[in-house]
Amino acid sequence: MFSPEGPTLRELAVQALSSVEHGYDLLAPKFDHTPYRTPDRVLDAVASALADLGPFGAGLDLCCGTGAGVDVLSRVCRDRVTGVDFSAGMLAVARQRAVPEGPAVSWVRADARALPFGPAFDLVVSFGAFGHFLPRELPGLFGQVRSVLRPGGCFAFPVVAPPRPGSLGYWTLLGFDAAMRVRNALWRPPFVMYYRTFRLGDVGRELTRAGFRAELRALPEFGRRPDGSPRARLLVARRLS
């Protein structure tokens, strides 16, 4: 699951007993050697799908972590790219990345729930961060995204089909979320990281309320499930006005 360069069990335990921000500060130097980093296969599929919708002007990677999503934006944006995250440690690693040729890249430390930008972006992407937001926070989060997009701009992120009920993946995610709830009931500060709270139906409704028109596009690189539905899709939400 983890490469030899990844964190030790002790380091993971210390992170898990920290706040979200401090936990990621601790994990940052080894984050890219964990399964929590979005796989290159996903990044490439999203970049390919966005290329069909672009090109875009300015792009923002929301909750950018060590900056893997910025590489996607650099492929589809012409003007400039910004990565924003509230972990100073993750941003420090991101700044050391070898950024591919393309638009200028900047890094900003800020909370996604209070973004320090005006409507300056044509595309916002996010990868693997939504488990850190409780369902009640989604309206505010999506409102923030809308506020930094120009009219007609896009908010895009990949979504993976949930595991079949009763499967190993289903029980694994259920067990992880249950353990996290117990941890947060017994220990402070809380570490918000849940895999089963970001439900697609709820997300679609909140995006509509926030002023987006959302659509799902299959990511063909991942094939289809036995019932014919895509294994992975790109949700593209366009700001209406």
Automatic annotation (TrEMBL):
UniProt-listed InterPro entries: Methyltransf_25, SAM-dependent_MTases_sf
Taxonomy, superkingdom: Bacteria
A molecular function GO annotation: methyltransferase activity
The Methyltransferase domain, residue ranges: 60-153
Keyword field: Methyltransferase, Transferase
Pfam family, any one: Methyltransf_25
Gene Ontology biological process terms, A to Z: methylation
The enzyme's E.C. designation: 2.1.1.-
Keyword Plastid: no
Name of the protein in its database record: Class I SAM-dependent methyltransferase
